[in-house]
Every structure is written in C-alpha cells, then in structure tokens.
TrEMBL record:
Annotated GTP binding sites: 59-62
Designated name of the protein: UPF0042 nucleotide-binding protein
Species in which this protein is naturally found: Eubacterium uniforme
PANTHER family in alphabetical order: RNASE ADAPTER PROTEIN RAPZ
Higher taxonomy: Bacteria, Bacillati, Bacillota, Clostridia, Eubacteriales
Keyword tags: ATP-binding, Coiled coil, GTP-binding, Nucleotide-binding
Annotated RapZ C-terminal domain residues: 164-283
Length: 285
C-alpha cells in the first residue's frame, strides 16, 4: 500500500502532480476535509480494500483546519499507517507570474494582493515542508519534467534528490539571470571572439574550450570554483534547499561562460546526491 499526501504552494503544480499520479494508477482525492483523513486512511489501509496506491491532495484551501493536520499525521504514525509527503514548491516571482497569467485570485489574498497571499501561505505550510519526503521545485521545469521526476519516485522507486542544481551560462549584455543564486564573471579570461577561426564557434566546440582552458587563469579559476561549489552544496542540502542556480557569465554568452559551465557540469554530475542540469541561455543569440 502506498499512501501519498500531495501538498505545497498554490500555483506550484499540485493539480498537475495529482493528474500524473492518476495516470500512474493512483486513486486520487483532492481537498479532502482534514477531519476525514483518519477515516479515509482506515478505509484504504483496510485489508479488504482493493486500493494499492492512493494520493490525497491537501493544501491551503483547508483553511484554519490545516493546523489540525499535524494531529492526523500523528494518528497515522501511531496506527503504523505509512505515508509519504510530496511538497510542490516554486519561487515567489514564478508564482506571481503564474497568477498574473491565469488571472486567478490567491486563496489568502483578500484584497487581490497576491504577494501577501504567497507570504502567508509559506508560513502556514512551513510545518508540512519540514515533514516532506520529497520536495520538487517547479520554478524552471515543464510538466513533462515533473512527470519524469514523479516517475523516478513512484514508478522506478529510484533515489530522489531533493536538491536540484542548474548551471546557466549567459551573456552580460543580455542581463543576469534573475533566479541566479551564485553569479560568476569570467570576462577576465582570453576571449575567443577575437580569434577569426573561433569567433563563430561556441564553448560547445573543442577548439574554443582548448583556447579558453589554455589560460593559467582559467585553469586556476575552474579549480577554485569546483572546490567552492563542492563545499557549498552539502551545506545547502543540510539547510534544506531544494534548488541552486549557478550562473556563469561572459560578454555575449557564447564562448567563455559556455566553456566554464560545461567544465563545471562535468565535475558536478559525478555526484549522485543531487540532480543537475545545464543551460546555455544566450548561446543562440
């Protein structure tokens, strides 16, 4: 029997997650009154029940009764009715954008102040996030990516990685990525743009990588960057962070930043404690 509580921030993708789990064969119930959770759990865990996978959506719509959820979870623990908590998260800017696009009112914004509603919701859901078995940040992933993450957890039963690291190369003339947590400027490195045979290539090409990394300064910088990031990530994991965005910039985002981003990615992907992906934001500009 697999009993999953799906929760998280409004606008972070809970409805999509429930639909995906339903596709996976879960019996899904959304917004069940808190008072009925114990009864519902008893029915599903009953040996005569033919349900093997159940997902239950619980969120801020429960109102003041949400605070009583802790009692319900403690009762499940006492009865040895095993459950898992899936928490969907997204950063404030993304949630604001999604509300603006959908033109929906936030459940906690009485006078239309979505930002204030998001802040209040984070406070009310903090206790659930602390108890969560899986935290997925949907700020920068599509529904198909969410399906892939849920597939790993609930189909393949793979090792879920709560921290997801994104490495982004960018060009300063196009602006710094707004969601960057760490920003590194590599414009001090030799610039392949001024070499005729390399000008129209990118950091994805071996010739450009060799030119950039032939610099002693580039090699030393990369070494120090690897050491620092490898030191920071375990601390971010212990802090409970679920997303880390590392942005590496040069002038146009074609050569040096792409090279260093690729090199750092190759180093970090060796570690299985966190997920990782890379993105070259301005390489086609």
């Amino acid at each position: 029997m697999r009993f999953v509580i799906v929760t998280g921030m409004s606008g972070a993708g809970k409805s999509s997650a429930l639909k995906i789990l339903e596709d996976f064969g879960f019996f899904c119930v959304d917004n069940l009154p808190i008072k009925l959770i114990d009864t519902f759990a008893d029915l599903t865990f009953n040996p005569t029940s033919d349900l093997e996978k159940v997902a239950m959506g619980i969120d801020i719509r429960s109102g003041e009764m949400l605070a009583k959820l802790t009692d319900s979870l403690d009762i499940l623990n006492e009865k040895k009715q095993d459950y898992e908590i899936l928490f969907l998260e997204a950063n404030d800017n993304v949630l604001l954008k999604r509300y603006k696009e959908s033109r929906r009112k936030h459940p906690l914004s009485k006078y239309g102040n979505v930002e204030d509603g998001i802040r209040k919701e984070r406070e009310k859901l903090a206790f659930l996030k602390k108890r969560a078995d899986y935290i997925i940040d949907t700020s920068n992933i599509l529904v198909r990516d969410l399906r892939g993450e849920l597939d790993k957890i609930f189909i393949d039963n793979g090792l879920f990685k709560n921290l997801y690291v994104r490495i982004i190369s960018f060009g300063y003339k196009h602006g710094i990525p707004q969601d960057a947590d760490l920003v590194f400027d590599v414009r001090f490195m030799p610039n392949p743009y001024y070499i005729d045979e390399l000008k129209n290539k990118t950091g994805e090409d071996e010739a450009v990588q060799e030119y950039v990394m032939n610099s002693e300064a580039a090699q030393e910088f990369l070494c120090k960057l690897k050491d620092m990031v490898n030191f920071l990530i375990p601390n971010y994991i212990s802090e409970g962070r679920n997303q880390l965005v590392i942005a590496i910039g040069c002038t146009g985002g074609h050569h040096r930043s792409v090279t260093i981003a690729n090199k750092l990615y190759e180093e970090l992907k060796k570690n299985e404690e966190y997920g990782i992906k890379k993105e070259h934001r301005d390489i086609a500009r």
